């Protein structure tokens, strides 16, 4: 199981700060969050479930954009951090 750490508003939507998810990739992890509809809808956009533009995901403290994006593989010891950040203006 992958350990998922949520921050900010995502904690409120999930009802807890940490989740355990059985997933082989970041994409699969996000798909498995469909059982928490409010959290899933906040993290994704559009009919294909694309990642919302203000969502940051890191695997073992490395931004997934520097890895393989949503196709980044996950192992049972991995820690995934998901943050919804706010833009100033």
UniProtKB/TrEMBL annotation:
It comes from the Archaea. CDD domains: Ubl_MoaD_like. It holds the Pfam family ThiS. This is Molybdopterin converting factor, small subunit. It comes from Thermoproteus tenax (strain ATCC 35583 / DSM 2078 / JCM 9277 / NBRC 100435 / Kra 1). The lineage of its organism: Archaea, Thermoproteota, Thermoprotei, Thermoproteales, Thermoproteaceae.
